[in-house]
Design brief:
This is F-box protein 2. It contains six helices and eleven strands. The protein is α+β, with helices and mostly antiparallel strands.
């Protein structure tokens, strides 16, 4: 069969994917996993490279996956692709933050007085942790100063050097602390951003927080956000601790739980 079999018929050229308008192509590409978009699709042709490097595709992916509202537009963010990847990776980088595994993952442990202990929440003369029903346990200090630390390797957690040195995403640290109602206590938080050789590049140290005997305010949150911290950050060292102020034998000191270190877009 050839064109002469149908006299007067218009023969259309065969369409290819390159002929599709950009809005249709963006809809198609949005269904592709993000890593494949960057590592494979953007290498196919100039059109695909421009779409993958552009904001429209990533705005759509963020909306489809609940990372952005339907009313958000390209101008709302400087780099939607980076926002997508950082949002997907966002998680607590600290481990064993409730004491479910006793002191696993914690190091440089200083056991003052009778040392650290893990207790069920609320414990004697304590407060319920109403902010998150999944938090069931906490670490408790004694009559001598107790400290413990955890070091996060950012590269091992999937954050590459160019991202850390150029984009410098926010590093947000949080902790929760509380006292017993029958004893006063002290609390401190110290977080350091470290270099490849674990030299201190930036440091945050809280004041010494004093909770008086008879305190019934429940759990308190402390938070700090590192931004514009400069190139070279490879590790985050999180340290907290405290003690009681009545110097009673046992575990009447500050209680801590739900500590977190997160890299945020």
């Amino acid at each position: 069969m050839d064109d002469g079999d149908f006299p007067g018929c218009l023969v259309l050229p065969e369409a290819t994917v390159e002929d599709l308008p950009d809005p249709i192509m963006i809809q198609i590409l949005a269904s592709v996993p993000a890593t494949e978009l960057v590592l494979i699709c953007r290498l196919v042709c100039l059109q695909w490279k421009e779409l993958v490097d552009g904001a429209s595709l990533w705005v759509l992916k963020c909306q489809q996956e609940g990372l952005a509202g339907e009313d958000q537009i390209e101008e709302d963010r400087e780099n939607w692709q980076m926002f997508y990847f950082l949002s997907k990776r966002k998680r607590n980088l600290l481990k064993n933050v409730f004491g479910e595994d006793e002191f696993e993952s914690w190091g440089d442990i200083e056991h003052g007085g009778d040392g650290w202990k893990v207790e069920e929440i609320p414990g004697d003369c304590g407060s319920e942790f109403t902010e998150d029903e999944n938090v069931k346990k906490c670490f408790v200090t004694s009559f001598g100063w107790c400290r413990k630390a955890q070091v996060v390797d950012l590269r091992a957690e999937g954050y590459w050097e160019e991202l850390l040195d150029t984009t410098q995403p926010s590093i947000v640290v949080k902790d929760w602390y509380s006292s017993r109602s029958d004893a006063g206590c002290l609390y401190e938080l110290c977080v350091k951003l470290l270099s490849e050789n674990e030299d201190v590049l930036v440091e945050y140290k809280s004041d010494t927080m004093a909770l008086p005997q008879g305190n019934v305010e429940g759990w308190k949150e402390i938070s700090h956000t590192f931004t514009n911290y400069g190139p070279g950050v490879r590790f985050v060292r999180f340290e907290h601790g405290g003690q009681d102020t009545v110097y009673w034998k046992g575990w009447f000191g500050v209680r801590v739980t739900n500590s977190s270190v997160m890299v945020e877009p």
